[in-house]
């Protein structure tokens, strides 16, 4: 066969691959390889086999070639075949010996004399060394060696910042703390034309900075623009409405406790891109917090129909049952989600929460401890372990875990709130005031959800006999919610302690209007009436 005929067949193979006609690609690639000894043709045939899901045959073809250990392309494709076959030890063996330190620096590699025969295309492809590091990370993660997997993922993105998969594994699986993520990003070498990517990556990592810092990061990314038609400003394109960036914003709102704002943003996003799975996860979390069971039912039904093999689908079903308080069913589906993907952090946390909702502390603690071990960069498992200890009145242990959660995530107001509750229960009221005030400082905008924190702060001030501050906090709480028994009762009792019996009686009545059989308010109202009767009505008392 003449050279021009062989070249034509090569073109046919490439065309078949581009049109996803893999059987045709395999057929013609096999014929090309029969007429030539060119390693590129063997590689093309193996690639066609790989794309056609003939992994064992592709691996055999590559392994039989003499060049497999001398060309990184061959070695990498052979390792990819072994990855698909789930033969992880053989995959690592094929990739060769190399070591990596905790910062992602590769050393002691045995690949110094290995060729890479496709250098011409390196400028427009992910660095092959980065891809190999990433595959090593995948293999070690599959073998449950998460420490080495973390190091190799770091090595992958340091070798080539365009290897987004490595960053995604590190962030989505909570392998790094906020400080480690920040340090890793600062060590990446971006090209002059990729500066925008550095800004974008800074929005993808944990959002534990101060509010002004995080919002500045979002603004910086939104400023990135390109003009497809320089003669017309109307053709200016920016990342402001990019779905990935907006999903990051929604995640930030969810983290800050602004669940309604988060839900509205994710709802808009899912109308444009209903299959954006990262946005879907944040949408589910916000819906659970808002108690929107109808939305959870619809989302779960659609996910199970469209993605029956995905962990997220069964997690959504678990969220629905958790929301309607059918905790046995929710546990079943959270358990199914963890069995499909043991590295899916939300499923482990949901599993623990479902047990905790029924006060099954041992099982809840087991789930939280597993999550804490698997996801060292996530503070929620540690926070929930502390909550379980607090529920059993082990306040010292609870405080230790809350402080650990604070170290991991110093910006979560819920952590400070729980520290305040622990201090209050241990009768350390000055410390409780400090923690509750810090809680309120970390909340971007005060909403009804944080009304109990304001009430707790008022209780702590009352215990310290700083009554004017306590009254101010109670009134602040009433501005957030007018149907809180504890707020009216606390305000009434504070006025009672100040001998302002008329105001106390007014608020005891308001509390009893909400709950007529409340024993404390009933007894204290009787005492206030007696006290007022003994003293008589003081004309100087201001009626409120």
Automatic annotation (TrEMBL):
Pfam family, one: TPR_8
Keywords: Cell cycle, Cell division, Mitosis, Repeat, TPR repeat, Ubl conjugation pathway
TPR repeats: 345-378, 413-446, 451-484, 485-518
GO biological process: anaphase-promoting complex-dependent catabolic process; cell division; positive regulation of mitotic metaphase/anaphase transition; protein ubiquitination
UniProt entry tagged with the keyword Cell cycle: yes
PROSITE patterns per UniProt: TPR (PS50005)
Domain of life: Eukaryota
Entry annotated with the keyword Repeat: yes
GO cellular component: anaphase-promoting complex; cytoplasm
Name of the protein in its database record: CELL DIVISION CYCLE 162327
Phylogenetic classification of the source organism: Eukaryota, Viridiplantae, Streptophyta, Embryophyta, Tracheophyta
């Amino acid at each position: 066969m003449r050279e021009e005929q062989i070249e034509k067949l090569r073109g046919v193979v490439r065309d078949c691959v581009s049109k996803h006609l893999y059987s045709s690609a395999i057929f013609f690639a096999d014929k090309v390889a029969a007429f030539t000894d060119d390693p590129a043709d063997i590689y093309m045939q193996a690639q066609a086999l790989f794309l056609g899901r003939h992994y064992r045959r592709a691996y055999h073809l590559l392994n039989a070639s003499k060049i497999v250990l001398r060309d990184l392309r061959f070695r990498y494709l052979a390792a990819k075949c072994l990855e698909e076959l789930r033969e992880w030890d053989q995959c690592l063996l094929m990739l060769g010996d190399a070591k990596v330190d905790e910062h992602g620096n590769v050393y002691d590699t045995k690949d110094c004399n290995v060729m890479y025969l496709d250098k011409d295309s390196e400028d427009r492809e992910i660095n092959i060394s980065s891809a190999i590091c990433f595959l090593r990370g995948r293999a070690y993660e599959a073998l449950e060696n998460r420490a080495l997997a973390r190091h190799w993922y770091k090595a992958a993105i340091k070798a080539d910042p365009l290897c987004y998969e490595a960053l995604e594994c590190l962030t989505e699986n909570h392998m790094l703390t906020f400080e480690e993520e920040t340090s890793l990003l600062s060590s990446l070498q971006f090209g002059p034309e990729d500066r925008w990517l550095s800004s974008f990556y800074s929005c993808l990592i944990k959002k534990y900075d101060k509010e002004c810092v995080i919002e500045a990061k979002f603004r910086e990314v939104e400023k990135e623009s390109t003009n497809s038609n320089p003669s017309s400003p109307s053709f200016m394109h920016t990342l402001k409405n990019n779905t990935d960036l907006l999903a990051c914003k929604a995640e930030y709102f969810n983290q800050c406790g602004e669940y309604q704002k988060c839900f509205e943003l994710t709802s808009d996003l899912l109308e444009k891109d209903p299959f954006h799975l990262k946005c879907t996860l944040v949408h589910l979390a916000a819906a659970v917090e808002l108690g929107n069971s109808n939305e959870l039912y619809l989302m779960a039904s659609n996910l199970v129909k469209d993605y029956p093999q995905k962990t997220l689908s069964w997690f959504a079903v678990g969220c629905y049952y958790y929301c309607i308080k059918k905790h046995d069913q929710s546990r079943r589906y959270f358990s199914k989600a963890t069995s499909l993907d043991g590295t899916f952090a939300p499923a482990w946390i949901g599993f623990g929460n479902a047990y905790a909702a029924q006060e099954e502390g041992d099982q809840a603690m087991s789930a939280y401890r597993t999550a804490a071990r698997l996801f060292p960069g996530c503070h929620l498992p540690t926070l929930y372990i502390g909550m379980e200890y607090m529920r059993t009145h082990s306040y010292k242990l609870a405080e230790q875990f809350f402080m650990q959660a604070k170290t991991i995530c110093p910006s979560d107001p819920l952590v400070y709130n729980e520290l305040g509750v622990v201090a209050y229960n241990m009768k350390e009221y000055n410390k409780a005031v400090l923690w509750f005030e810090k809680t309120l400082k970390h909340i971007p905008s005060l909403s009804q959800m944080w009304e109990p924190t304001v009430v707790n702060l008022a209780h702590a001030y009352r215990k310290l006999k700083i009554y004017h501050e306590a009254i101010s906090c109670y009134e602040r709480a009433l501005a957030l919610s007018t149907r809180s028994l504890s707020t009216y009762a606390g305000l009434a009792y504070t006025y009672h302690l100040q001998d302002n019996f008329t105001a106390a009686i007014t608020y005891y009545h308001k509390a009893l209007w909400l709950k007529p059989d409340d024993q404390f308010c009933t007894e204290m109202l009787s005492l206030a009436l007696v006290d007022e009767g003994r003293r008589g009505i003081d004309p100087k008392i201001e009626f409120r």
